[in-house]
Design a protein that fits this description.
Elements (H helix, E strand, L loop, with lengths): L1 E7 L13 E3 L2 H4 L5 E8 L6 H18 L1 H4 L1 E4 L5 E4 L8 E7 L22 E6 L5 E8 L5 H15 L22 H5 L12 E3 L15 E8 L1 H11 L11 H19 L15 E7 L24 E6 H5 L3 H18 L2 H12 L1 H4 L5 E3 L3 E5 L20 E3 L10 E6 L6 E8 L3 H5 L2 H6 L1 E4 L1
Parallel strand pairs: 6-7, 11-14, 14-16
Antiparallel strand pairs: 1-6, 2-5, 3-8, 3-15, 4-5, 7-8, 9-13, 10-17, 10-18, 11-12, 16-17
Helix pairs in contact: 2-4, 6-7, 7-9
Length: 457
């Protein structure tokens, strides 16, 4: 039962430059669906009384909203279909903050702990206190406003202010405009006036798409896996090229190859229908798309460290022989991992990122909105680099979080994987989905089970 609902408005403590009244979204922002990114952090019973915890969270959230005007704004569109963030005083409708006192103990993370799962408005936060003393601080964030890195930049500022520390203005953008090309100026210039083809996995449509590809709408089941630190090391060892070859793979490459093969085999073994949006049967290849933050690719190193708020997840893809993905051996999966590494170094080079930015800077590409689509058989998102329980995300009361998640029970498309890592133990947790018809084959995949333990499905 909801104990309290408050509306949090930005404070007026800091003498910061007045933000623009509107910030128009970049083409890369438009790729993100109007959905929420979630973050749940769970704490043991704190020594600080709950009312004091709540007031500390609300006061620091209000100050963080002042320092991040786009987060306090509202996402709107005009008659031409252009999407923008409105930040005039009249457009600041406030951020709902819920306090929910549960009469049951904490059992597990669930979707209904999220403060918002269906309505796309400004960010929302909630504090849930369970009868056992566990406190969950749950936050949701409009994906069109920013990607995970941008979301975490805001959450880290909120936590910093809650701890009573002064804001670090070197880690707050001083320009809210969605112009990522300014960080790649010299590289982007070489593409001016050049007609660029859509970089894979993107496709340029003659008319705006009216909805996602058919396969993305197929009912799916989410499975959750745990890979211990030692198993991850063994996986990388088993998939690595021979010593002396001059070639190498990362642990992330090995993990991506493992889950991609498992999904491909599950679909094949249980004869999952190949719907529109996937590679054809005759092509004998599968397309793997991977999201990667491109901020650190800026030549001058001035885009990372909280300096850009927006979506700069550079989605890239590669095609892999279906025969390698279908073969449950370390040799075949190692070839997939090596292909991922080779393509990653190409597609995430500074020049390739700049070329992608130049493509989306072209007004003919983004107008009308919806002309850019993408297709892939498998989509991977790796959050292992982010310490979701780390010191930057602690509020200053109680102990560190004993668990942090991307939200439980959320509905995902099939052949999607989200990977996170517990930085204290080195254990990796993998959310992996497949069409309903492929569930039994995925759960029983021999190679996946060699390294991973099925936690839930």
């Amino acid at each position: 039962m909801a104990l309290e609902t408050s509306i949090i408005f930005p404070t007026n403590k800091h003498n910061r430059p007045t933000p623009p009244s509107k910030v128009y979204l970049h083409g890369l922002d438009g790729l993100s669906a109007a959905i929420q990114i979630h973050n749940h952090r769970f704490f043991r019973r704190p020594s600080t009384p709950l009312p004091d915890v709540v007031e500390q969270l609300k006061a620091s959230l209000a100050e963080a909203l002042e320092l991040y005007p786009p987060v306090a704004g509202t996402v709107q569109s005009n008659d031409m279909g252009e999407i923008f963030i409105a930040m005039d005083k009249g457009d600041i409708v406030g951020t709902p903050f819920l306090v929910d006192l549960k009469d049951t103990p904490f059992v597990k993370d669930e979707e209904n702990l999220s403060p918002r799962t269906d309505v796309i408005l400004p960010p929302m936060a909630s504090t849930l206190a369970f009868s056992c003393g566990t406190i969950c601080v749950a936050s949701s964030f409009n994906h069109q406003v920013a990607d995970l890195r941008g979301f975490l930049d805001f959450l880290e500022l909120w936590a910093q202010l809650s701890r009573g520390e002064p804001a670090d203005f070197t880690r707050i953008p001083d320009d809210w405009e969605r112009t990522p090309g300014r960080f790649f100026t010299d590289l982007v210039k070489q593409f001016e006036g050049v007609s660029l083809a859509a970089p894979p996995p993107f496709v340029l449509l003659d008319t705006p798409a009216t909805g996602p590809s058919a396969y993305l709408l197929a009912p799916s089941v989410a499975t959750n896996w745990k890979i211990s630190k030692s198993s991850m090391a063994q996986l990388k060892h088993d998939l690595s090229p021979p010593a002396g070859s001059g070639l190498w793979i990362s642990s992330g490459d090995a993990l991506a190859a493992l889950v991609s093969g498992a999904v491909t085999r599950a679909r094949q073994d249980n004869k999952v229908a190949r719907l529109e949006g996937r590679s054809s049967e005759e092509s004998e290849v599968e397309s793997i798309a991977m999201a990667a933050d491109g901020r650190e690719r800026a030549p001058k190193g001035d885009m990372s460290g909280g300096r850009y708020l927006g979506n700069f997840n550079n989605l890239w893809s590669l095609t892999v022989p279906r025969s390698d993905l279908s073969t449950p051996t370390t040799e075949a999966t190692g070839r997939v991992a090596l292909a991922i590494r080779s393509n990653l170094e190409i597609h995430l080079s500074a020049e390739s990122v700049a070329k992608r930015v130049a493509f989306f800077d072209n007004p003919a590409v983004c107008n009308p909105p919806g002309r850019v689509g993408w297709v892939a058989d498998i989509v991977l998102t790796n959050w292992c680099r982010f310490d979701l329980k780390g010191p930057k995300l602690r509020f200053g009361w109680g102990e560190k979080p004993f668990m942090a998640t991307s939200g439980g029970g959320t509905v995902f498309p099939p052949a999607y994987s989200l990977m996170t890592e517990d930085k204290e133990t080195g254990d990796v947790f993998v959310l992996l989905t497949v069409e309903n018809d492929g569930e039994s084959a995925l759960a029983g995949d021999v190679l996946l089970n060699k390294y991973a333990t099925l936690v839930s499905s």
